[in-house]
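Hi R.,

Here's the chain you asked about this morning:
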Amino acid sequence: MGVSAYTDYFKDIDRSLDRYIQELCDFLRIPAVSAYSGSEKAMARSAEWFLGRVRDLGFTGYILPTEGWPIVVARHKYSVSAPNLLIYGHYDVQPEAPLEEWLSSPFEPTFRDGAVFARGANDDKGQLYTYVKALETYRRVTGSIPLNITFLVEGEEEIGSKSLLRFIRENKDLLHSDIFFVSDSSMLSKDIPAITCGFRGIASFEVDLQTMAHDLHSGLFGGVAMNAAEVLSKLLAKMKDSDGKITVPGFYDDVRPLGECERTLMAQIPYDEAAVAEDLGMPSLVGERGYTAIVRKSARPTLDINGMWGGFTGEGSKTVIPAKAFAKISARLVPDQRPEAIFKCFEDFFAANLPFGARADIRYQFGAAPVVTDTDDPNIRLAAEAIKEGFGVSPVFIRSGGTIHIISEIKDSLKIPSMLILGWGRPENRSHSPNERFYVEDFKRATRSLCVLFDKIAKTFGGRSL
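And the predicted structure, written out as tokens:
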């Protein structure tokens, strides 16, 4: 395919970009927060809105009710000999809290410094919508879409994907594909695109600890009562040593060491630790001693206290000794760690370290297995070529430190041979945080890259191309 053909795609995207972004803003205005029990109308509107946009491209589809939030399934059938693509994304978003830290309304998209600010702009509505608009441009320029494509878009990614996991297990034939696409991750930096070749897994659990029947007066019982907050904080502190190593017995038993090739690739990734620390408001990056920041944040297992509380936390003073204390904890996992086995390690750790008289209820919340892909996959190489055309620079190959629950299920259940994990957001886009954003330039470059990639796939598989 010649340069002039790429130019046709790029000119069409340039002409259409303002409309594409305004459509995205309509999507972002829908407050589809899956964590809120009262989100029925917003979740339904978001699913219907997305289905409407792909129907505009000639897709047929439906909205599948579930015990949780609806799933969107939309299909485009070209021919039996064309490649089958499965494109995954999610229309649900994180809660907007803390609202007071937003510089503009989280559900009224606002433009500043070349970016659109809104909840879901980066995670995942903005990244997902690049596929819809790339297909629109692709069809307009070529006259058709010579690919078989299924969109699978859920409303529970931010709360564990329970309904979609069940749907996948029950509909393997429907979802059979040659290539799986997802864009719900990040580039390396604003100037360096990336292809993600692995995600860490996760094990999430909660701890409820109790030491007495009820809270006590600290003047009357201070010095003789067992303080639940103090006990829990000591236990949590004991889970890591001063070098950042996790001390829970068995935690590292199944960790697969990085291969020589991957260590070499990671060592070549440009990463300015000082600049990243400054952007995060930290004097320096921290973590497990003996590993680079790139390895620590993407290819080593981690343990984090996501929240802890106990006793009196309201305004003013109340001098009590708390009888109960609570914590939310998560561990990010690497190949070959398994969530259930890791949770058992923490159960055993608490059982072995609780002081006499204290009781702990440890509850498993959710988990996902880690995933790695083969960088020698020819479709990953096609994606790298397409991204170079769209961004003007070659992508690097990285692992993501995050977790997308559904990817491990896609890999294990559907056995799709190629997985293309293409992150279009910048690391500073603040997914899950106030002032989430997505840069218009990145939307444009991502849409360009996808147009080229769709054409390359069609041409490689023997379909029509421009």
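The first helix runs from residue 3 to 28.

Let me know if you need anything else.
M.
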